[in-house]
Amino acid sequence: MRAIILAAGKGTRLQSEKFNLPKVLRQLCGKPLLGHVLENMAFLSPEDISIVVGYMSEKVETEIGGTYRYALQTEQKGTGHAVLAAESHFDGYDGDVIILFGDMPMFKREHYEGVIRKHEESGADLTILTAIAEAPLPYGRIIRDADGKVCDIVEQKDATEEQKAIRELNVGIFVAKAPALFEALHKIGNNNAQGEYYLTDVPKILIREGRKVESHTIHDDVAIVGVNTVEDLEFCEKHMKERKHD
To answer: Is the pTM of this model over 0.85?
Structure first.
């Protein structure tokens, strides 16, 4: 198992006179957001973790250091484009890879291990971590067919009002067979509201090609929060302190 952590964003809504650093270096309970994510991914060797950097990439590499592998995303063209920035790290590798985000510090090791276990036991080409959430989070919605199988993911900005009412969310964590993942990534387009290359188009491509796509679902409104605003940061700080107190 290897990992790709997406950590290239600027985090415009978190910038201020006091803070002009990449989003993943924003401090949460005395540690960068990315530091929390890496701590929860410590069941993998650092050499097996690729971190995709972009905005002020040298600052991230200096702050995080270690023997992680760094890939540079020179332009911000979406999550699919970001994963492709690390493709060269996987030359000749035909194992599995987990993709996650460097600004989601509340996921626990058990969440990652749960979706990995489901992926391995099911023999899927791709397994999606989904969450049933009550909070109105701006995430993609999971679309299922009549048999209850995942058939699509629709980003909130592209969703109809009916789709926005769906409570099962895509939280951005995928486990995939690396060759199938990169093959599909080269087929995605950017015909959407953002004009970006969405990682979330990969499941649809694999399903269309007859590949096996599975899902692993959690019920957790806290773990799935990503940090995009000061309010998100305060939310995570409050819950992280409660966790430590427990």
So the answer is: yes
Report the distance separating Cα 213 and Cα 186, nearest Å.
Answer: 18
The string of pLDDT tens digits covering residues 192-202 is 888 899 999 99
Which is the catalytic residue, given 13, 109, 167, 243? 13
Is position 13 annotated as part of the catalytic site?
yes
Beta strands in the chain (DSSP E): 2-7, 27-28, 31-32, 49-53, 69-72, 96-101, 126-132, 140-144, 150-154, 168-177, 213-218
Angle, helices 33-40/57-64, rounded to nearest 10 degrees: 50
CATH of the domain at 100: 3.90.550.10
Report in angstroms the alpha-carbon separations of 49 from 31, 63, 86, 141, 213: 19, 16, 10, 28, 23
Provide the residue range defining the domain that includes 23.
2-245
Q: What is the pLDDT of residues 179-237, one digit of tens each?
A: 999 999 999 999 888 889 999 999 999 999 999 999 999 999 999 999 999 999 999 99
Cα separation of 132 and 219, whole Å?
5
Q: pLDDT tens, 38-55?
A: 999 999 999 999 999 999
User: Which one-letter DSSP state was computed for residue 34?
Assistant: H
Tokens of residue 209, six digits? 């090609």
Number of domains in the chain: 1
Report d(CA 49, CA 165) in Å as an integer. Answer: 36
| Residues 83-97: b if buried by 16+ CB within 10 A, e if exposed | bbbbbebbeeeeebb
